[in-house]
Amino acid sequence: MQHLHRKLTSNRPSIKLVNQILLRQFYSTDKCFDAGQPIPSTHPQLLKEGEITPGISCDEYVSRRRRILELLPEQSVAVVAAAPVKMMTDVVPYTFRQDSDYLYITGCQQPGGIAVLSHDFGLCMFMPEPTPQDITWQGQIAGVDAAIEFFKADQSYPISKLHKVLPNMIKNCSKLYHNVKTAVPTYTELEAFKKAAYNGGLHDLSIYTHEARWIKSSAELNLMRQSASIGCQALLQTMLQSKISPYENILSAKVEYECRIRGAQRMAFNPVVGGGPNGSVIHYSRNDQNVKDGELVLMDIGCELHGYVSDLTRTWPPCGTFSDAHRQVYDLVVETNKECIQLCKPGMSIQRIHNYSVEKLCRGLKGMGILKNDRLQSYHQVNPTSIGHYLGMDVHDCSKIGYERTLKPGVVITIEPGIYIPSNFDCAQRYQGIGIRIEDEVVITESGYEVLTGSLPKEINHIETLLNNHSYGENRDISAFGF
């Protein structure tokens, strides 16, 4: 900068001109468009040109809206509110996560908005109106201009105009839909909304949004592959850490750290880290106990990447060796996992795969003497769960679609057989307190399936080799162990 100043002053330009040139090095009079969230011009490391959210293009968002409108009856209107901000204390909010349906339709990751879909006007977004104080404390928030320019809404208004504009939109509708879980008084308390709801009946929009979200596009599947890959790498590093730090809280922190440094925005749910008998508690989340030598640890984890989540589970002995009782139960679970994955194909259903898993686990548990009979009531004492669920923007995705639905290419499910034997269960003592689950993510393809979590070892010999041959003092290539 000093060199530039000397060069300019040697040619004796005016002081005013020098100052103008120097100031341009630091300031621009052009206003930089700010959508209140990452966009290609501000975050080129995250988004490509033409994308509204990382990996999902503007064209795909438009096609999503068109698909939902195709499902909606004629002359109907759908109202979807953004997720509310939930407060931890008076001035401290919980970390915000957008409502999945609102995100799916708009691409907007911010609170305060309401979207309206109709055959007559397409997508209309009512946007929050931040005050200067809001911007000072929270940063820029997307407004009406961003709704049109970036989110490609057909119409947009400030949220303060909702009470005037929405009544005209819904006054002649035959049916009124809204997202029940994010309903807000801003629109539900309007007399026009109440009247339209009374006349046409009020319906839950999720029966259509879940239908649209059920089959994933190629762009969505790419994000889910990335999310699964992050989860696998994070859990693998945590498995290695467990031998020197067999503590539930440390393993929970480790897996979250490993997910976040690989790009995940958040965990999909609080990690389940159950050591010993805690592994038999299906959604154990305290994560405050030490894992004793010779015990297993069950870890169920998932992370979220740009709106799409992963969900995977592995169970292993941090000490590096499965006991005989552990091996017996584990072999049954891993065999069930692999055979159920083989069943994943178009035309099958989660319910049919579940029924197969119950029969196999019942036979195996009875053979080991853990179950005394074949009655389902006895089986449900050691496994009250389903073999799996749909996966996507939510952990239990598309809950309006039943498990008896025939699977189609593009649907993502989990396969997660488990055995959870309480410490006081009436069986041989060596089995009491054992909890084992093995969970993989599976995409249904035209010819069968693709396992998104296949890089994470689950065979006993692979796990023991990994744990007992890893050098904790150096960063070794684990590919030497065949993973």
From TrEMBL:
Cofactors (names): Mn(2+)
A GO molecular function held by the record: manganese ion binding
Keywords from the named record: Hydrolase, Manganese, Metal-binding
GO CC annotations, alphabetized: mitochondrion
InterPro entries from the UniProt entry: Aminopep_P_N, Creatin/AminoP/Spt16_N, Creatinase/aminopeptidase-like, Pept_M24, X-Pro_dipept-like
A Pfam family that the UniProt record links to this protein: Peptidase_M24
Range of residues in the leader sequence: none
Transmembrane parts of this sequence: none
Residue ranges annotated for the Aminopeptidase P N-terminal domain, each copy included: 56-186
Gene Ontology biological process: proteolysis
Similarity comment: Belongs to the peptidase M24B family.
PANTHER family: XAA-PRO AMINOPEPTIDASE 3 (PTHR43226:SF4)
Official protein name in the record: Aminopeptidase P N-terminal domain-containing protein
